[in-house]
Amino acid sequence: MKKVAIPIGKNNQIEDHFGHCKFYNIYTLSEDNRITNVEELASKKGCGCNSNIGSVLAKKGVQVMIAGGIGTGAFTVLNSLGINVIRGCSGNVDTLMKEYTSNLLTDGGETCGHTHHKKHQCNHS
């Protein structure tokens, strides 16, 4: 059994930035990569880069995070908690999960380093 999380944005699209989503879908997959359950996990308001969402996801057994943009700090925290992050994804969440369960998703290899607010960047070291 494997658990995969995706930050959800508008219209069932993956959120462009991991820490800014309204909620996360946590998918439970069977041994043969079939989705057996979907759980919705609410996100705290504001930027998630300073939240404890990594610990919460790890406690729920999440092993993989499919993300759009994600800051270096969040990426590092998730990895340190044993959560593999697949970065640079975009589009419809259902399509992304089909691609993931078919072993077609690959990591985009880049973390988010653009400015979100005048005095804030999510590329913490």
Automatic annotation (TrEMBL):
Pfam families the record matches: Nitro_FeMo-Co
Gene3D superfamilies documented for this protein: Dinitrogenase iron-molybdenum cofactor biosynthesis domain
CDD domains: MTH1175
InterPro entries: Di-Nase_FeMo-co_biosynth, DiNase_FeMo-co_biosyn_sf, MTH1175_dom
Dinitrogenase iron-molybdenum cofactor biosynthesis domain: residues covered: 11-101
UniProt-listed PANTHER family: DINITROGENASE IRON-MOLYBDENUM COFACTOR PROTEIN-RELATED, IRON-MOLYBDENUM PROTEIN
Name of the protein described by the UniProt record: Dinitrogenase iron-molybdenum cofactor biosynthesis protein
Source species: Aureibaculum algae
Record lineage: Bacteria, Pseudomonadati, Bacteroidota, Flavobacteriia, Flavobacteriales
